[in-house]
Each structure stands twice: as C-alpha cells, then as structure tokens.
Amino acid sequence: MKKNNNCDLKTCFMCQLTLKEWHPAIESHKRNFIAKKGEVIIKEGDQVSGVYFVTSGNVKVHKQWGDKELILRFANDGAIIGHRGISSSISTYPISATALETTKLCFVDIDFFKTTIKVNQEFAYGLLMFYADELHASEKKMRNLALMSVKGRLAVAILGLRDQFGLDDEGFLNLALSRQDLAAFTGATYETVFRTMNELLAEKLIIVKGKQIGILNEAGLTDLSSK
C-alpha cells in the first residue's frame, strides 16, 4: 500500500469517540495508507499487527468457506476493519479485507489500540456496541442462509446496501458490485445469482447498469425480504 499523510483526526470511528486530549497520541502513532482497487489490506491467517479505519472508499471483508469466498460485510467511510483479530486465544486475522476501489486508510498497531480502549471510556463503550451490532447482523445472516430463498437474500442484500451506501442521483447504489461479489455476499453460486437477478429484472423490482444496481420497486423487495 502507498503511504498517505492526509488525516483530519475526525473521520474515523476511533477519532470520533476518543478524548480530544488523546488525539495528539493518535497523531503520533497512526499511519495512513492508500490501497488500490483489488489490493489486499488484510490477509486471512496473517499475524495480527493492528486495526485499520476506512477514511474514504469501500472495502469488502471476506473469508474462505471451503473452496468458496464468503463476504461477511462491506466497510466504508469511518468503519473499522481488522478488529476480528483481537482475541485472547488467537493471534492471526480470521478474515481478509480487500479494497473495492481506491481507498484511504488509517492504521494503528494493536498495542496502541488496546491502550486507547483502556484510556477512553466512550470509545470502549462504542466498540462494545459495534461488536454487539455486528454479532446480531452475523446471526441474522446465518438465519437467512439457512431459511431464506436466494431471491429473498438478494432483496435483503440490496436493501441493506442501500441503507449503508445510499443511492446516487440516478437511483443506483453508491457501490459498484460484481455478480461474483454479490454471490459471495448472499451465500449463493454465481449461476444462481445471475438467474435470480434476471428474475428481479423481469419483475421490474430492480434495474441494472453494468455493476450498478438500482431499485425500482422498494415495496416489492421489502416483501421478498420478509419471506
């Protein structure tokens, strides 16, 4: 990754919740980088060195599931990645993280990160809530994988990505997503996702332009997501 010195100490999750008096310490310990599209930021199985915060851009957090890739979540502006490596029993990252576009990142080593948690009560509480929300989302996703059809999972994914990334002026998701990544995110095969996307198009629930997905019928997608 290419080094980058731009950081306003305001954007990321850590800076927003830590004491202002702690910001000089962050300034002296942080390192800023730029990752190119497709560049691996964290590799599953590597030794834990620290955590990253996304200053701008989009990142997919993923892991190997047998011979397939499973995308656990997407991280954009202000989000944290690498926190899954914080454990009392393991010392390697259980996930990988890859830039989906040119992405700016802030990195802090693991020892300083743990010290920051101990010193900053609001940050510690915010991190606890983040872990709780992430656990809830993971449990819901596992339930959907077990009980919901691929069409329903696609509807859930599209609406969730709309909530996270928003829509552009033309009504498309502010995230260009390949069919392969969409399959990895919904836990389905590429062929099944391709066929199901065509069904959603035929039913005029969505519109597609290249790798961009637009919502035509939110009520219809919501109905599918509840089945």
From TrEMBL:
Keyword Signal belongs to the record: no
GO cellular component: cytosol
Gene3D superfamilies: Jelly Rolls, Winged helix-like DNA-binding domain superfamily/Winged helix DNA-binding domain
Cited InterPro entries: cNMP-bd_dom, cNMP-bd_dom_sf, Env_Response_Regulators, HTH_CRP, RmlC-like_jellyroll, WH-like_DNA-bd_sf, WH_DNA-bd_sf
Record key words, sorted: DNA-binding, Transcription, Transcription regulation
PROSITE patterns assigned: CNMP_BINDING_3, HTH_CRP_2
CDD domains for the chain: CAP_ED (cd00038), HTH_CRP (cd00092)
Gene Ontology MF: a single term: DNA binding
Domain HTH crp-type: 148-219
Residue stretches making up the Cyclic nucleotide-binding domain: 31-117
Ranges in coiled-coil conformation: none
Pfam families membership: cNMP_binding, HTH_Crp_2
Protein name per UniProt: Crp/Fnr family transcriptional regulator
Species name: Pedobacter kyonggii
Lineage start: Bacteria, Pseudomonadati, Bacteroidota, Sphingobacteriia, Sphingobacteriales
